Here is the input.
Amino acid sequence: SNGYRLSDGKVIGLDINRYVTDKDYAKLIDDAEAQSLLYVWQCSVESMNGDIYTFFGRTWNDYYEFLMALTREVRRAELFGGKGGNSTEYDAAMVSKRNIKTFCYIHNLAFEFQHLLNLFDDDFTKRYKTQKTYPVFARTSRSPMKSYINFNGVKIEYRDTLSLTHKTLDNWCKDENLPVKKLTALPDRYYDAVRTPATPLSDLEWEYSERDVVSMVYGMRKYRDKYGSLEDIPLTQTGEVRLDVRQAVCEVNKDWAKKCTDIMKAYSFEEYNNLLKIFMGGWTHANILYTGLRFNSILYGQNIRCFDLSSSYPASLTMFRYPVTNFINTPVEEFNKFESEDIINSKHRWYAKIKLTDLATFTSNTYWSLSKTIEIDDYTIDNGKVVAAKSATIMLTDVDWWIFKQAYRWSDIEVLELHVAQADYLCKELILKILDYFNGKQMLKGVKGAESKYVASKQGANSIYGVSAQKLVTDEILFVHDDEDNTAKWVSKSVSEYDFYEHLNTIKPEKTFLAYQHAPWVTAWSRFRLFRAVLKFDGKIFYCD
Here is the structure.
């Protein structure tokens, strides 16, 4: 329950309508201290015979007592196969048995984690000598994907189902056609009111709470059936797709897998950082001619059209040539030769570091992001995009250069670096797998009896880009105890050159179906497809995403 503590100690809920219309009330809320209070928790537990039991509590003490009971039964099941045992043999076995583990799945662990700290702040920062990893695993600060505590002789591992499904709980239940669905019947802005453990709850509220967790048990059963055990379920949706693609590619085309592995093992730390620099995501921007204007749909609606590039990134992976050898540092004098080649049919892929003087945009849909410049002087921007600059140094792919030279003009150009690789299509097995995902996504929607195949295909099509764009090694995110102020904190440890080369040694062909250098060109080719239209219709385009 969320509330706001006023200067007199009173906690009030939020009246959103009053907040919008009453300036004094809005200031009162803005100056107050935000508060959060547990008023109900629920946890569904699957028994040894498959029955589902749901437990409820109103306080943190209730939850602590529940975990005591749960872990005792988990130990009993581990020791006696769920059949129990007399107290003498049970107590003796409890002393000797080690490494007992159970899983607790939470939808949006990042949110619940902040509240679990009320009980387990020390446990989430404590690294035991017998355990190789820290209790909290996260890719970004404040967003744990899993964490564990050691409680009453049992390791309880909390895992995030939002990272696994990339769906709201409601959509997860609907897409998988689970026998129990999430209720959506609570009143609008239900959570604005302040509730305490003493607040009476209606039958609807209890049912709402129960369905939230019972539905997840049914959902996780499907994952367990697919992977054989909870332990083996990937942490993310892309992890699921990665396993599927490995089977389709690495086990069939071992030469391609070895080729990608050898390419990455030959990376220098400098080359890898260059690839990170030339990588750009999607292009999202409003036309500077129309930013801030409102168009009356009655007058303009019939003349405004929307278009969508369906599964743009998967399409780019199948349609174009990518760098399939290591890049060679090439004399800059050869720049004109390579940049004059036909961008689609060229047998080369290259990237370059270029300095431009008196840079100015041709287009009202401004192309280049300020964040992707290495150096820039005396510049103007359009919502984060470079409109003009006295000088700018950038590093970009050949595909981005094809767009750039049609979107900008300049008085002088100096090529500082040129890196060239051989180009070819990605392996046939990977392309066919992507097409299989796309075909299932398009053709199986709404087909009775094909729900699971449709969901798997849709996930594959939506996640293949994430699989292709994963960094080789990322910053280490730690949740640790700060002895100076006696608090738990998120700490980011940057990737070192040593970390990078250590990771290269772990790359294996049986797990490799793409090299990281393919990633910058996936998004570049999608921008290429988009900007062929933007450059043609520039002044008539309102917005692109």
User: Anything to note?
Assistant: The first helix runs from residue 16 to 21.
